[in-house]
Amino acid sequence: MLHSVRTPGFADTVFHEVEARSVLNRVPSSSPVPFGWTVNPYRGCSHACTYCLVPDTPVLTADGRSRPIGELRPGDEVVGTLADGGGRRRFVRTPVLARWSTRRRAQEVTLDDGTVLVTSAEHRFLTTTGWAHVRPGRCRSSADRPHLTPGTALVGPGAAAVPGGPRPEGYAEGWLCGLVRADAVRGRVRAEPFPTGWVELEALARAHHLLTARPVPVAAGMLAAPAPSPTAWPHRPARGWSAGFVGGIVDACGEVSAGVLRIVPGEETLARACVDALRRLGFRVASEPSARPGVRALRVLGGVAEQLRLVAVTDPAVARMRDVGGARVEEPPGGAPRVVSIRDTGTLRPMVDITTGTGDFVAAGVVSHNCFARNTHTYLDLDAGADFDSQIVVKVNVARVLERELARPSWRREHVAMGTNTDPYQRAEGRYRLMPGVIGALARSGTPFSVLTKGTVLGRDLPQLAAANADVRVGTGVSIALLDRELQSHLEPGTPSPWARLDLVRRITDAGLPCGVMVAPVLPWLTDSTEALDALLGEIAAAGASRATVLALHLRPGTREWFLAWLGRTHPALLPRYARLYRGGAYATPDYRRALARRVSPLLARHGLDRPEPNPRDPGWTRQPVAPVRPPDPDAGQLSLL
User: Fold this and answer.
1) Complete DSSP assignment for 149-189
2) How much is the pLDDT for 191?
3) Are 512 and 519 in contact (CB under 8 A)?
4) What are the domain boundaries of the chain?
């Protein structure tokens, strides 16, 4: 590395100026793309903040239980949060979309409820005043990012809601007693024996397991003691028996609505026994009317935090009884968990993070932000010159190295593509002007090339591109995904507007160069309607484009996390549909791609944009090469500025 540079024109960007050893990149032969080589003068956003927790950190899952974050995999469901429009958050079920492992310097965050979180310095937790990192520092555009300090109040149900340890002694007997007795109340209505049709399969499976595991005394003559009944009442119920008893009653006659659990015992004797057991477990209970006429319901006071503690303590078998989706995010009765201390351990630890549909999850009882790490510019270029803390690697010697590589006797003047990974005409090109040297090196060596861009900076080099096209075949392409300026500004921040790119297409064709348009990414259920595509293709044709290629959104790692988090905030109803559509990986299902192709085909024909795309791998595509150039003198350096 030569320098790291900040400049007022790019306030939120750091340019890392490097001298590359090689710039011609071979494309794997297995790749379906129609070119064999690429050149990337820039590597945009080579790294970003990584938000991580140690692998054994418990995460609240959608079934109301907890699993270590290290065991979670894409497709699992956890509990996240979403704003409800009234300034409050609610718990919702959300899928795990991605998972990362890394090693980071460990920080120990101790809370006043006894929780110790081992995390990276960059990790963020939701506080009562907003998101805050564990340690101070710079991230994105903030010179002094919000961070935790002793006394910071965190948002979440707290440690009491995290299940811990095996079931206590007496739990199994208490659970069977609660289930059988509560089911008997309902069974009297229809004169049904246990189990009645009310008992759900999850509860039946546990009952079968517990009953088959019960010890049966071996007969020893007339003095053999009878086997204890599973419905027997203990003389002095212990805590373990009480936890199981309430869990069994919940499985038999619990009701959940909007994330709130109510227990409807059905008779006074059972209701009193349930209230007594709840009080022995430290819960406060309210009695209120139920949906069943003349029957009272019991509800644990203290909001969702106490409800989660109830689930953790009593462990009902029926998953829907543990569902808190739709419940408001509230402080636990004892107040919000507060930071006591933050200690740098000085050691590197293995850490894991996940990405979820909502952009957050509940870790060790507090709401935790998920990972937005991205290793490089991705298909959407979502972080090129945007509001994020960009780290742009600039290969300042790209033209000189490229000219040397193109002059090798082994170089066969195969097509070179630019803009397939990082945009060569992103904003940084206005400062560094690397592309004129790259274009010159390619043209002088007789190497055909193409450029795909979203950047209007390409207009600066149109005279040079037109001149190069007289010697080698030059292809140009402009990426235009949609016309909606507001939507585009969210998905492609920092890039020229669709109308500015359409004007670039006009300028390219006016210069005598063929110009194709990449209509990508098409967003399922957002920009893929016949009306939207027809309007966009009409504008592209009017701008003079020779052809258009339409591609559905690719959700590659990095882009996937950012996009789905945005989708969860702006169009949460679409998250399940996207989960199904992209269940196989980065690409939409074949059925969707075929349906999109059928929709687009007549539109391309109508607008005259259905010409086949030239394939640089086809024989005869390349013009006659010019004479090879002599390699530059390796000892000749850049002239001194002074």
Assistant:
1) -TTPBBPSS-GGGS--SSPPTTHHHHHHHHHHHHHHHHHHH
2) 56
3) no
4) 58-156+336-369, 172-209+232-324
Which residue reads 């149109």 in tokens?
A: 462
What is the C-alpha to C-alpha distance for residues 341 and 152, in angstroms, rounded to an integer? 10
Beta bridge partners of residue 111, listed in sequence order: 339
With cut-offs at 50, 70 and 90, classify the pLDDT of residue 355.
Answer: confident
pLDDT on residue 386? 35
- Beta pairing partners, 222: 220
pTM (2 d.p.) = 0.52
Measured distance CA(430)–CA(607) in Å, rounded: 34
CA nearest to 43, candidates 376, 502, 409, 525: 376
- Domain topology for 172-209+232-324: Endonuclease I-creI (3.10.28)
CA atoms within 13 A on the CB side of 303: 17
CA distance 275 to 269: 10
Q: What are phi and psi of 472, to 5 degrees?
A: -135, 160
Residues 6+ apart with CB under 8 A from 427: 10, 384, 385, 455, 457, 494
- Token pair belonging to 509: 């064709």
Q: Cα dihedral sign for 209, 211, 217, 219?
A: negative
Backbone angles phi, psi at 241, to 5 degrees: -65, -40
Question: What is the mean pLDDT of the segment spanning 586-606?
Answer: 94
Determine the 3-state secondary structure of 54 from DSSP: coil
Q: How far apart are CA 52 and CA 47, in angstroms?
A: 15
pLDDT in tens, 224-258: 445 456 667 788 899 999 999 999 999 999 998 88
Reading the block at residue 53, the tokens are 């927790």
277 with 237: CB under 8 angstroms? Answer: yes
pLDDT higher than threshold 80 for residue 632: no
Q: Are strands 130-133 and 124-127 parallel, antiparallel or unpaired?
A: antiparallel
Phi-psi region of 157 (alpha: psi -120 to 50; beta: other; left: phi over 0): alpha
Tell me if 58-156+336-369 shares its fold with 172-209+232-324: no
CATH 2.170.16.10 applies to domain 58-156+336-369: yes
Neighbours of 585 (CB within 10 A): 12
The answer to whether residues 261 and 250 touch, using CB atoms and an 8 Å cutoff, is yes
Structure tokens given for 407: 């002059």
**3-class DSSP state of 518:** strand
Most confident stretch, 48-52, 148-152, 184-188, 586-590: 148-152
Distance CA 516, CA 502 (A): 11
Buried b (16+ CB within 10 A) or exposed e, 452-480: bbbbbbbbebbeebeebbebbbbbbbbbb
